[in-house]
Design a protein that fits this description.
- There is one protein chain.
- By secondary structure, this protein is mainly beta.
- It has a single domain (2-184), classed as Roll (3-methyladenine DNA Glycosylase, Chain A), CATH 3.10.300.
- Helices cover 10% and strands 32% of the residues.
- Strands 1, 2, 3, 4, 5, 6, 7, 8 and 9 form a nine-stranded antiparallel sheet that branches.
- β3 (57-62) and β4 (66-72) form a beta hairpin.
- The protein is globular and about 40 Å long.
- The chain binds a DNA duplex through residues 27, 29, 36-38, 41, 44-46, 60-66, 68, 70, 83, 85, 111-114, 152-155, 174-176.
DNA sequence: TTCGTGATACCC
DNA sequence: GGTATCACGAAC
């Protein structure tokens, strides 16, 4: 699912304005069997939505200052989610720039914390249903894009799992590439 | 490379 | 209660 989301359009409607962007970078997280996952140690109030039905927003606060947006994937009871790490803005750039306090379009939403800040996403959207919501949803994107895979960013456990996906050559993906040569993955 | 920042989880 | 640990970003 993480790979399929690359190239799709993420849409956020807020205050009558539409913010959108093409998803260019994601990471997959699983449950019990994934040491890097919030759900690795089981259910808790924080990760509750990871155990809920698929297609919902799992939004959490981390590092004392950043929100991160995930989309749940597995059926209720089984924890798994895809972290949205970067988008290439396609609409509402002015409001995104205002939210971020920077003008450079390439850096508006390059990184999970930047993405949520640009799109004004916080814990109030935790649990939002991507299928029925008009505040936050995803539209199918362009097929055939060249997608690369690598190990995940900032993850010490499970480095052999290449569960980070990004659009080849995109200048909108986040910095901080993990060590090791990325491999193609189509 | 470092540092700010605060919730969370797990250990008393 | 305390505290280690973060699915980070930006400024150096």
């Amino acid at each position: 699912m993480a790979k399929e989301l690359i190239g799709c359009l993420l849409v956020r409607n807020i205050d009558g304005e539409t913010l959108s962007g093409m998803i260019v970078e994601t990471e997959a997280y699983r449950g019990r069997e994934d040491p890097a996952s919030h759900a690795y140690r089981g259910r808790s109030p924080r990760n509750e939505t990871m155990f809920g039905p698929p297609g919902h927003a799992y939004v959490y606060f981390t590092m004392g200052m950043h929100y991160c947006l995930n989309i749940t994937t597995e059926p209720a009871g089984k924890a798994a989610a895809v972290l949205l790490r970067a988008i290439e803005p396609t609409a509402g750039m002015e409001l995104m720039a205002k939210n971020r306090g920077v003008a450079d379009v390439q850096r508006l939403a390059s990184g999970p914390g930047n993405l949520t800040k640009a799109m004004a996403i916080d814990r109030s959207l935790n649990g939002e249903d991507f299928v029925t919501s008009d505040r936050l949803f995803v539209e199918s994107g362009r097929p055939g894009a060249s997608i690369m895979a690598s190990s995940r960013v900032g993850v010490s456990a499970g480095k052999s799992n290449h569960w980070r996906f990004f659009l080849e050559g995109s200048r909108f993906v986040s910095r901080g590439r993990p060590a090791g040569a990325p491999r193609t993955h189509n």
